[in-house]
Design a protein that fits this description.
The protein is built from 6 helices and 6 strands. It is of the alpha/beta class. The protein has a single domain (3-141), classed as CBS-domain (Roll). The strands form 2 sheets. It has a 3-stranded mixed β-sheet. It is elongated, with a radius of gyration of 18 Å. Bound molecules: adenosine monophosphate.
Length: 142
Amino acid sequence: MSVQDILVQKGQHIEFIGPDVKIAQAILHLASKRIGALLVMDDARRILGILSERDIIRALVAGSHALDDHVRDHMTSVVVTCPLNTSVAEVMDMMTRGRFRHIPVVNDDELVGVISIGDVVKHRLAEMESEKSAIIAYIAAG
Ligand code: AMP
């Protein structure tokens, strides 16, 4: 199973924000979409960074002016991405090692989606459920 299988079910919609938007606006965006991270992109849809709720928490702890800061002040600029054929197991490993819960997916240098840890867990649970059904059917047939 690859991230492509997850994107087929989930779709390729990407929530993103510009680097010069204020943190207060980014919080509203995250809350309204009920998500934990936004890709930061320029007008040419190039990835400039990623801003997650953790970055915002850190910014708020660092100073009371954080809501007026810009996204570029608190985003992570070096973003780890994965190709479309990455296995779900590899993505889980990347998230665990990198200590993040979001990975943009690229295909031929084009951004085609974002996988979150929630997507991975949902997918893995469905896989385990179908493995369980297959084992039960196998035992019942014996
Ligand atoms: P998360 O667990 O995804 O909310 O993010 C935890 C931290 O990792 C935050 O500082 C994010 O900006 C950063 N982060 C999230 N996703 C990535 C990624 N794919 N590559 C690099 N850093 C990331």
